[in-house]
Amino acid sequence: MYVKVKNGAVEAFPYGQRDLMRDNPNTSYPRVMSDEALAEQGLYLVATREIPQPFDPITQNATVIDPVMENDSWVQAWSVTAASPEEVQQRTNDLAASTRAQRDNQLQQTDWMALSDVTMEPYWREYRQQLRDVTAQEGYPYSVIWPTKPE
Fold this sequence. Notes:
- The protein is elongated.
- It has 2 domains: 2-82, no CATH class; 85-136, no CATH class.
- The protein is 32% helix and 25% strand.
- A hairpin with a 2-residue loop joins strand 1 and strand 2 (9-15).
- It contains 4 helices and 5 strands.
- It has a 5-stranded mixed sheet with strand order 2-1-3-5-4.
- By secondary structure, it is α+β, with helices and mostly antiparallel strands.
């Protein structure tokens, strides 16, 4: 990921060698350009950076913004903003659906034990009940303690 810089200011981001060729159709460039050759054109490699912490993906949005110069290098920058109530609700609903799907999958893996011609051991009944109770846990769907599957 590169940034195009002119007079020390970000002109375009993200920007790459294809963009350079598109913007300069009458100029011939090598297929692969060195970082030095790109710098001559005002293109600089941008070091990626993780989203600043603490970050809550349910209640916050993180957006990549124009990179910033730090210690003579361009580094990725982030804008972290509060999510709207609608976004928070949608993310909560999505997380709950994903957790229920995981729970349903784990229950399905033990469904064969619930057939009429199989005697289910009490520890398997307890395990299956604990799976069904996952959605009633305090903190659901953000914090779930999964039961341990019997051996």
